[in-house]
Amino acid sequence: MNKDVIILIAEDDTGHAGLIKKNFRRAGIINEILHFPDGQDVLDFLFRRGKGPHRETGKAYILLLDINMPKVPGTEVLKELKNDPELKKIPVIMVTTTDDPREVENCHALGCGSYITKPVEYEEFIKTI
To answer: Which terminus of the chain has a smaller tally of CB atoms within 10 A, N or C?
Structure first.
């Protein structure tokens, strides 16, 4: 991955977020990684709202997005992102435990680039990441 691309992880489970980061590092991915514990925080970052850190113009981002999150669900984050003329260019990969085919189809229809089901088993989760 291009080291200039900033990886955004929207994941309410801090353990899963930590495993994702850890395994990216093990794979030699040295990109900056930002973690957001809920859908509202990642929307605030992307849309430059509120007090926290904000997206910078001219920087490239990729979003790993969980579906089941507090405040704003991942599907709503995806919908808002893909409805914005500038932000719709950000690649979104759904990373979730939900493997319902209707949910997979819905996320693709909303504009996600890929849909990855998180395995429940620790070793399988590491391999998937």
So the answer is: N
Q: What is the pLDDT of residue 128?
A: 60
6: helix, coil or strand?
strand
**The pLDDT of residue 65 is above 90:** yes
Predicted local distance difference test score (pLDDT) of residue 70: 93
Q: Please answer whether residues 63 and 90 qualify as being in contact, where contact means their C-beta atoms are separated by less than 8 angstroms.
A: yes
Q: Taking Cα atoms as reference points, which of 128, 110, 111 lies closest to residue 119?
A: 128
Question: Could you give the C-alpha distances from 102 to 23, 70, 109, 111, 127, in angstroms and in order?
Answer: 29, 21, 10, 14, 25
Helices (H) and strands (E) in the chain, counts: 5, 5
pTM of the model: 0.90
Residue 118 pLDDT class (50, 70, 90 cuts): confident
Q: What residues contact 101, with CB distance under 8 A and at least 6 apart? A: none
Q: Encoding tokens for residue 21?
A: 């980061």
